[in-house]
Amino acid sequence: MTRTHASQTRSTKYAWAEGLTVFAAVTLMLAGILAIFHGIMGIAQDDVFVTTRNYVFQFDLTGWGWIHLILGAAAVIVSLGLFQGAMWARVSGVAIAGLIIIANFLSLPYYPIWSVVMIAFSGFVIWALCVGRGEGAFGRGSYGE
Known about the structure:
By secondary structure, the chain is mainly alpha-helical. Helices cover about 75% and strands about 0% of the residues.
């Protein structure tokens, strides 16, 4: 009887970890696609962006566009790695999501609502990748039995 209970607990941990990894992969993919769109809008110098005077972290709008475009492309690539269950993708996912948070915080005055949404998406990615412990994903590896 104890053996069945231990087996059920183990499969529940695997399912939980797998669900968090899939959640992180999908959310990072969405954050990456939105960052790509943000970058394209910045490069095209769209008039949806607010220009502020005397902002400490003031960059050219095209510069911000390229930063967001590169981070978005990296996020999409890393999310594809998360779907494969690669450990490098977990570590890179946390790093890329952190960089997306920093970039959106610094560009907050240019497009505040979008930046807040992107910060929230990236925060959920970091949470999901850090909570779902273990090596590998999708039922492979050890999740601290």
